[in-house]
Amino acid sequence: MSKYVLIGSEGCGSVIVELAMREVQAEFELEEIPYLEPGPDRDRLLELNPLGQVPTLIMPDGSVMTESAAIILHLADAFPDQRFVPSSSDPQRPGFLRWLLYINSEIYPTTTFADDPDRWKISETRSQEYKDAIDQYRMELWANVEQVADDPYFLGERLSAVDFYIAVMRHWRPGKKAFAKALPKLNTIADNVSRLPQFESILKRNFPDS
């Protein structure tokens, strides 16, 4: 194998990694699957990633990487000319790492908390109340990112991987309109990313309203 294989699903976290791979012009093949649907694709995914989640990245040597932040940091090492992860000597690196991991550890998991209330033993009568509470909490978490965001991108003039997350995750619960209303700075950043030629087709394919 001489190239990466990115296993992903439309509109999911794999889009974040696809943006990063396009930015570094990595040679890769995208395998889009309905990752939650039972069948051969799901079975293969579970063999590669016990959590059955996307993105799952098969490396050129056949090994497997999971977790979008880990993949982002790997690509920064594998393509040293990239600029979306500040170098170890860059004064913006500590802030970048802080918010990259904040988005991944605090905000990202809430998308799964509300998707399947039955998994958490939430009764059917309370499931909507539970989803609404999670959505509100998610927006409160995003508000912390809004407070420190620069312009035109999160770090200022420099495009970073944090911008990839913002551009993709604004389409997730509670939806793009709610995101734009509550988080105008982050929404502008997402718009700026969506207009970049190298990303426009990817985001339009996954989110037609981009």
TrEMBL record:
Gene3D superfamilies recorded: 1.20.1050.10, Glutaredoxin (3.40.30.10)
Stretches assigned to the GST N-terminal domain? 1-83
Cite the entry's keywords alphabetically: Transferase
Q: Where is the GST C-terminal domain?
A: 89-210
Query: Does this entry carry the keyword Lipid metabolism?
Result: no
Per its UniProt record, what SUPFAM superfamilies does this chain match? GST C-terminal domain-like, Thioredoxin-like
* Annotated transmembrane regions: none
Q: Which PROSITE patterns match?
A: GST_CTER, GST_NTER
Origin, by domain of life?
Bacteria
The reply to whether Transferase figures as a keyword in the UniProt entry is yes
Q: Which GO terms describe its molecular function?
A: transferase activity
A Pfam family matched in the record: GST_N_2
Q: What is this protein called?
A: Glutathione S-transferase family protein
